[in-house]
Amino acid sequence: MSDPIVKISGLNKWYGEFHVLRDIDLEVKKGERIVICGPSGSGKSTLIRCINALEEFQEGEIVVDGIELGPNLKHVDAVRREVGMVFQSFNLFPHLTVLDNCTLAPIWVRNIPKRDAEATAMKFLERVKIPHQANKFPGQMSGGQQQRVAIARALTMNPKVMLFDEPTSALDPEMVKEVLDTMVDLAEEGMTMLVVTHEMGFAREVANRVVFMDAGQIIEANTPNEFFAAPQHARTKLFLSQILR
Amino acid sequence: MTDITSSTFVRRNLLTERPAPVKTTGFVGLMRTRLFNSPTNILLTIVGALLLWFTIIPSVRFLLVDAVWAGTDRTACLTENAGFVVGACWPYIQAKLPQLIYGFYPEAERWRVNLTLFLAAALLVPLLVPRLPSKGLNAGLFFFAFPVVAFFLLHGGGISGFGLSWTAGILQLFDDSIIGAGQVLLNLSKTSAMAPLLWVIGNLVVLVGTAIYWLIFPLTSLRDQLQGTGQSVWADFAITAVIVSLIAFVLGGGVRTGWRALASSFATFVAIAIVIKLMGLDHGGLPIVQTGLWGGLLVTLVVSVTGIVTSLPIGIALALGRRSTIPLIRIFSIAFIEFWRGVPLITVLFFATYMLPLFLPGNFTVDGLVRALVGIALFTGAYQAENVRGGLAAIPRGQGEAAAALGLSWWKTTSLIVLPQALRHVIPNLVNSFISLFKDTSLVSIVALFDLLGSLRASFSDPKWSTPSTAFTGFAFAGIIYFLFCFGMSRYSLFVEHRLNAHRRT
Ligand SMILES: Nc1ncnc2c1ncn2[C@@H]1O[C@H](COP(=O)(O)OP(=O)(O)OP(=O)(O)O)[C@@H](O)[C@H]1O
Ligand SMILES: [Mg+2]
């Protein structure tokens, strides 16, 4: 249980002249739940997008489940097969039904027969509690339902790590809970999760560690209790005072 | 208290329906609410009615009422014989119909055109009806098998070899041109100022060419061996079938999962063999009908269907190329698109027909119709590229990212996620280009190809049918034909658009 499944070391990234990520070191153990928070523009999204190679980086190394992802992104495909991602804006495929959204990658990436892929997809749709809507198009569903489909879609690939980039920020308040509940269920089943979110309740309840980022650096990382009760850094205190007001 | 109850009105029994006091439905209602409801609308209604009056009435009179329906030559359509001012002279169309459909295609061979048109319809109609099954096979037959069959049906002729000979031929042509280029360089080096450099490069190129010659030597010599035997086509066919089937088997996953690929490869070759046998391609095939003899609706359909079917893939490839991150591909695509968009189609056709032969080596000729086809396909392809690009631009970046995060490769993301959405967005624009392509095919008549309009104009000069209304009748007929095809495409595209955009209706 204690070997790191994601290991980020000496990660540096620039957008042109702008140094977005500065010397990031982070180890995530199998089954660990990490919440990443920090002010807007601090590089949270960029960091987790580096883990599945949606962004390239200039220096450092990321190892996911023993697969090495250097600056030249050699093992992109292998890494992406192990890592699932949920986006702020859902990014479901609007021209495909919910079921087809969930079977596309298993069929075309893992070469699983259609029938098996559909059975698996239905299993995950049941887990996120929307099996009845399998034949609807994403555009016919509420935001909360869409985001749960997006979670199911990522799970159909049996990822070892799940990345969440502000999964509830685009949702109306009453739908936030249904998505968070799904994520809590997932955490209880032992999924390794990296979650960028401002839902501090979720962080308290689920996270093993809370990581605070500012200006492209990890400034503080601690257990939720310590993090909220006794923040070390002045920047962290300011952030918490703003967000927990 | 009491006055509240007394002033509250409670209906005890329901009222029956009453007709509206002012009529709002039916014809009178329509008149009142839509046509004559304000002074401006009254004016517009009157103007519109007058316009209709002045266009519809004369058209109907010309086409139907004052038309002559029977006759054997021009005399039937002359005013003095008919006894009234003659409108359309339909016997003329009737007499010229074969020419308008087949051009100068020999009468005895016209069944081949009919068969081709029938095959096209038999394959196209099921493809267009969404409810019918096995679209993949159907599309494969229409887009790959049909063009080949149609070529041998319409043009005639046979084959003297198969895959092996063709591969050998293409490689040899390629190799010959490399060696040729090397020799040109060597010749230049005798006179040029940069002689040593050219000499070195020339020798290098010739060396490469010679190396390739020896590399492909086994293939070419095998081909020559086969040509010697009596059954060259079938021997070559068998070898090709075995090689291709083996490749399919291995690519399909070998012993584990390759059996399906092997079976479909086998089935395909059996089908090809049957076609070859049926059409007698192995011993000369059908009598050759030169494309110069083709004409009328046949040419219009051949040009437009080929243009439509080939321009879309060209357009998609160019549009994707234009967004490529590889500079060479991007620059090529942009240059290509802008070049073809910058020249008028007439220029393209003229160039393809009269200038291209001057540039090609003497023994290398391309059929006139093919030249026009290629010109039109590339021209329309460039326009379709811009249409497709518009659709690609409308796809949010998140779509590609989500697909990538799921592990889909660039090709799969493009073909499963991006293109299906992009093309749906631009169906109206694509079909718009198809319709204008269909009408632009009439331009081929300026490069000595007789399409529907060309054949029509040729028929005007027949003294047997020269009457005052011949030209009007002919153009009216051509107009109706063009309209039917274009209107059909337009309606079908609306239907498809509606169906494919089901996901946008919530
Ligand atoms: N493609 C890009 N080109 C240039 N700069 C970028 C690009 N993407 C992001 N940035 C910059 O990088 C910084 C970090 O962006 P990032 O999206 O990681 O922030 P974030 O912490 O996720 O913020 P938010 O909470 O607003 O999502 C920001 O200052 C942003 O302006
Ligand atoms: Mg972000």
UniProtKB/TrEMBL annotation, chain A:
Tell me the SUPFAM superfamilies matching this sequence.
Answer: P-loop containing nucleoside triphosphate hydrolases (SSF52540)
Report the superkingdom from the record: Bacteria
What Gene3D superfamilies does the entry give?
P-loop containing nucleotide triphosphate hydrolases
Domain ABC transporter, chain residue ranges per copy: 6-240
GO MF entries: ABC-type amino acid transporter activity; ATP binding; ATP hydrolysis activity
InterPro entries, per database record: AAA+_ATPase (IPR003593), ABC_ATPase_HisP-typ (IPR030679), ABC_transporter-like_ATP-bd (IPR003439), ABC_transporter-like_CS (IPR017871), MetN_ABC_transporter-like (IPR050086), P-loop_NTPase (IPR027417)
Keywords for the protein's UniProt record, in alphabetical order: ATP-binding, Nucleotide-binding, Transport
PANTHER family named in the record: AMINO ACID IMPORT ATP-BINDING PROTEIN, PHOSPHONATES IMPORT ATP-BINDING PROTEIN PHNC
Annotated function = Involved in beta-(1-->2)glucan export. Transmembrane domains (TMD) form a pore in the inner membrane and the ATP-binding domain (NBD) is responsible for energy generation.
- Per the similarity annotation, which family is this? Belongs to the ABC transporter superfamily.
Q: What is this protein called?
A: Amino acid ABC transporter ATP-binding protein
Q: What organism does this protein naturally occur in?
A: Bradyrhizobium forestalis
TrEMBL record, chain B:
Main location per the UniProt record: membrane
Membrane topology according to the record: Multi-pass membrane protein
Location(s), subcellular = Cell inner membrane; Cell membrane
Indicate whether Cell cycle appears among the record's keywords: no
The record, for InterPro entries, names:
AA_ABC_transptr_permease_3TM, ArtM/GltK/GlnP/TcyL/YhdX-like, MetI-like, MetI-like_sf
Q: Name one GO biological process term.
A: amino acid transport
**GO MF, any single term:** transmembrane transporter activity
Kindly give the PROSITE patterns that the UniProt entry links to this protein. ABC_TM1
Please name the Gene3D superfamilies in this protein's record.
MetI-like
Identify the residues that the record assigns to the ABC transmembrane type-1 domain, covering every copy: 297-493
Query: Could you name the Gene Ontology cellular component terms for this entry?
Result: ATP-binding cassette (ABC) transporter complex
- Residue ranges spanning the membrane: these are 42-64, 111-129, 136-154, 197-217, 237-255, 262-281, 293-320, 332-356, 472-495
Arranged from A to Z, the UniProt key words for this protein are:
Cell membrane, Membrane, Transmembrane, Transmembrane helix, Transport
Q: Give the protein family.
A: Belongs to the binding-protein-dependent transport system permease family. HisMQ subfamily.
Protein's name in the database:
Amino acid ABC transporter permease
